[in-house]
Amino acid sequence: MNTDKRKVVLIGTGMVGMSFAYALVNQGGICNELVLIDVNKERANGEAMDLNHGLAFAKSNMRIYAGEYKDCKDADIVVIAAGVAQKDGETRLDLLQRNTDVFRSIINPVVKSGFDGIFLVATNPVDIMTRVTYELSRFGASRVIGTGTSLDTARLRYLLGDYFTVDPKNIHAYVIGEHGDSEFVPLSQVMLATKSVTEILEDERNDYNIDDMQSIEEQVRTSAYKIIKAKRATYYGIGMAIARIVKAILGDENSVLTVSAKLCGEYDSKNVFIGVPCIIGRNGIKEIVELSLTDEEKEKFQKSKTILDDSFNGLNL
Ligand code: NAD
Q1: Which of 28, 122, 215, 233 is deepest in the core (most CB within 10 A)?
Q2: Number of other residues whose CB lies within 10 A of the CB of residue 198
Q3: For the segment 178-196, what is each residue's pLDDT rounded down to a tens digit?
Q4: Is 150 in the pocket of ligand 1 (CB under 6 A)?
Q5: Is 17 in the pocket of ligand 1 (CB under 6 A)?
């Protein structure tokens, strides 16, 4: 992999892709070259112009331009946020099939360019689209990553921080499973600093209770629906989540983030791509962190995994 410069190619310059690009420009220092690709070339050109005009106000300089698939050759990361919207009356599986066709038109030319970096997928349903990317690219599993439940985990920590009146940075908690309706919070793993939250809930000297925990979990699970109802789409949060993962990779941080990763025996599962805490560094997924789940949590995880397997197996790849 190229190490002397940090080059990112973004494919799909819609709301999610450009929120990511905007976060990159504003945070500064994460990468120094950003290429924009979209099936709508005029849009990619316009977005590149717009971002370039803001560079004078940014923290650090970046080379930004609308490019071609051949520009992926020496990129470190290809971020995919391209996709088609669900049509009226279309089933989820029909949409999945159409997005798979979109991915075929993307992954093949990226691989053909000689790209040898890391794929980071945000397109929904993200766990399935990440698995599709893995199958089409034939890259090693550590180099194919989905945004998974990274945003859901950030939402969870924000809500728990508010509830316990503690900086979310001091809350250790994960949303795991499918980025979707079957995702869940393994409560046995939620820690406030080094103190277990289940212990805090059992302590009768405070008013914290399990019902509030379940309500927080439900808020996390339904927040995308609420945002979509209010403003038609969600994009700032996921844009920042993508920027966070890119920063962890390019900075070789070895940070733990809940991304969609291929399981190879962890959590008693194989082949599925699903949201789990992973150590992320320069070469992608360094390690999948296997949490010690309770029997009930293990059951929820298996249910989520089966939903993802069934969707993937229904696809015509
Ligand atoms: P959008 O419609 O604004 O943008 C999609 C872009 O993809 C468009 O610019 C379109 O021209 C481009 N595109 C379509 N087909 C293409 C192709 N074959 N090659 C190149 N580009 C192509 O949509 P959006 O709001 O930016 O959402 C993008 C995706 O991100 C959706 O699948 C959405 O569901 C997903 N999303 C994921 C999360 C998450 O947590 N992972 C959160 C929000 C949205």
Answers
A1: 122
A2: 15
A3: 999 999 999 999 999 999 9
A4: no
A5: yes
